[in-house]
C-alpha cells in the first residue's frame, strides 16, 4: 500500500476513530486502527467490539492495501507532523514508513486480515434527523443514564421513533429525562442505545442545521451515518421501563421561576450541601418566593428566588446535583416546577414549550 494525504485531515480522522479504541482489551489488534484504501479514499476504522467508528478521507492512492497500526503511536506521530502532505508506504512484511517533509518514521504494523469486521447493518429504512437536533436530544437525556452495572438496560437511552415523532428517554432510578421532537417517519422503531455510543456521537456531531444524520437499525445493532463518518453500535437487550407510568399527570403546586437564577442559587447552596451525605438542599415554596437552604456541620446557607406560584405551599428536599444537571441543559429562560407532595417526584419543564420533561425524586426530610 502507498498513499498520500493531508496531515490535518489524517489527524482529524485518527482522532475521530480513536474514540472507539480501548487500551483495556485482551486482543492486541483492537489497540490499533485499521487503515485501508477504498476507491479514491482512505478508510480508517476503530472498534472495541461494542462500538465501531469508520471515517473516510480523500487521498491519493498510489497502490491499494490495508494495515493496522497502533492507535496511540500513530495518533501521536501524525499530530506532531507539520501541516503538509503525509506519505504512508507499507511493504509485504507490514513494515510501514510514514514520511512528511523532513520526518520519516518506520512502524511495524499488523496484518489487516486479522482485524475484526464491523457488523453489517442493512441500509433499507433510514430515519433522518438534523444534526443539531440529535446533538441537542443526546445532551438533554444521556446524563440521566445509570452507572449501576446490575441494571444494564438503564445504562442506555431509549430511542422511540413513531410516525410523527421521536422520543429519547433516560432514567437511573432517581431521575428521568424525556426529550420529544416532531419528525416524519415511515416505520416505527424502539431501541435502547448505550450511553457510551451516544456520548461519542455527540462529540462527532456538529451544530449544522441543514445536515441530516441517517439512522438504521437491526435487531441487535444501530448505524449512524454522518457524511464522512459511520458509527455502528450494539443495542442493549432487555425491556425498558414503561416511563409513561412514572410521570405524574397532575400537580398540586406549580412554581414558575427564572432558570438562571434558580441554577445560580442551587449552585451556591450546594457548596455546603456537598459537605453532607446526599447533597441535600431544601426548597420552601411559599407565596412569591422559594427559599433554598442547606445545613452542614460547618455552617448553613439561605437563598431566596422569586417565583409565580399556583396552588399550595410545600417544603421538599432534593439532591442538588440532580437538579443542577437538568437546569444546565434547559435552554429556556424560565421553567415550571410541578409538585404533588413532599415525597412525590417533582417535574421540571421549560415554560415556553413541552418538548422536555425532567422528573426528579425528592430526598425525605427528617424532622
Automatic annotation (TrEMBL):
Molecular-function GO term, any one: DNA-directed DNA polymerase activity
Coiled-coil ranges per UniProt: none
Keywords in alphabetical order: Cytoplasm, DNA replication, DNA-binding, DNA-directed DNA polymerase, Nucleotidyltransferase, Transferase
Domain DNA polymerase III beta sliding clamp N-terminal stretches: 1-119
Protein localization: Cytoplasm
SMART domains registered for this protein in UniProt: POL3Bc (SM00480)
Main location: cytoplasm
InterPro entries tied to this protein: DNA_polIII_beta, DNA_polIII_beta_C, DNA_polIII_beta_cen, DNA_polIII_beta_N
Every DNA polymerase III beta sliding clamp C-terminal domain range: 245-364
Pfam name, any one: DNA_pol3_beta
DNA polymerase III beta sliding clamp central domain mapped to chain residues: 129-240
Complex and partners: Forms a ring-shaped head-to-tail homodimer around DNA.
Primary role: Confers DNA tethering and processivity to DNA polymerases and other proteins. Acts as a clamp, forming a ring around DNA (a reaction catalyzed by the clamp-loading complex) which diffuses in an ATP-independent manner freely and bidirectionally along dsDNA. Initially characterized for its ability to contact the catalytic subunit of DNA polymerase III (Pol III), a complex, multichain enzyme responsible for most of the replicative synthesis in bacteria; Pol III exhibits 3'-5' exonuclease proofreading activity.
Family: Belongs to the beta sliding clamp family.
Protein name (database record): Beta sliding clamp
Gene name in the database record: dnaN
Amino acid at each position: 500500500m502507498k498513499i498520500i494525504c493531508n496531515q490535518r485531515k489524517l489527524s482529524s480522522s485518527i482522532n475521530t476513530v480513536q474514540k472507539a479504541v480501548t487500551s483495556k482489551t485482551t486482543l492486541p489488534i483492537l489497540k490499533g486502527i485499521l487503515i485501508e484504501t477504498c476507491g479514491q479514499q482512505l478508510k480508517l476504522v476503530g472498534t472495541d467490539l461494542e462500538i465501531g467508528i469508520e471515517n473516510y478521507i480523500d487521498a491519493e492512492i498510489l497502490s491499494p492495501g490495508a494495515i493496522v497500526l497502533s492507535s496511540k503511536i500513530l495518533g501521536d506521530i501524525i499530530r506532531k507532523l507539520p501541516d503538509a502532505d503525509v506519505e504512508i508506504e507499507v511493504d509485504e512484511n507490514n513494515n510501514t514508513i510514514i514520511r512528511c517533509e523532513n520526518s520519516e518514521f518506520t512502524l511495524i504494523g499488523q496484518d489487516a486480515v486479522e482485524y475484526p469486521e464491523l457488523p453489517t447493518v442493512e441500509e433499507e429504512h433510514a430515519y433522518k434527523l438534523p444534526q443539531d437536533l440529535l446533538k441537542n436530544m443526546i445532551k438533554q437525556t444521556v446524563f440521566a443514564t445509570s452507572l449501576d452495572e446490575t441494571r444494564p438496560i438503564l445504562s442506555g437511552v431509549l430511542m422511540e421513533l413513531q410516525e410523527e415523532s421521536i422520543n429519547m428517554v433516560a432514567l437511573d432510578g432517581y431521575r428521568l429525562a424525556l426529550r420529544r421532537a416532531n419528525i416524519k417517519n415511515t416505520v416505527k422503531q424502539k431501541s435502547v442505545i448505550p450511553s457510551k455510543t451516544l456520548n461519542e456521537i455527540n462529540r462527532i456531531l456538529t451544530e449544522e442545521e441543514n445536515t441530516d444524520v441517517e439512522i438504521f437499525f437491526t435487531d441487535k445493532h444501530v448505524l449512524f451515518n454522518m457524511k464522512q463518518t459511520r458509527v455502528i453500535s450494539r443495542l442493549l437487550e432487555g425491556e425498558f421501563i414503561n416511563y409513561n407510568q412514572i410521570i405524574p399527570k397532575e400537580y398540586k403546586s406549580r412554581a414558575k421561576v427564572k432558570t438562571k437564577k434558580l441554577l445560580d442559587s442551587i449552585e451556591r447552596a450546594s457548596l455546603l450541601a456537598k459537605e453532607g451525605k446526599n447533597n441535600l438542599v431544601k426548597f420552601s415554596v411559599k407565596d412569591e418566593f422559594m427559599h433554598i437552604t442547606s445545613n452542614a456541620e460547618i455552617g448553613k446557607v439561605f437563598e431566596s428566588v422569586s417565583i409565580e406560584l399556583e396552588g399550595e405551599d410545600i417544603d421538599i428536599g432534593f439532591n442538588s446535583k440532580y437538579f443542577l444537571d437538568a437546569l444546565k441543559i434547559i435552554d429556556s429562560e424560565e421553567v415550571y416546577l410541578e409538585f404533588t407532595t413532599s415525597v412525590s417526584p417533582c417535574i421540571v419543564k421549560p415554560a415556553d414549550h413541552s418538548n422536555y420533561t425532567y422528573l426528579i425524586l425528592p430526598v425525605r426530610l427528617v424532622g
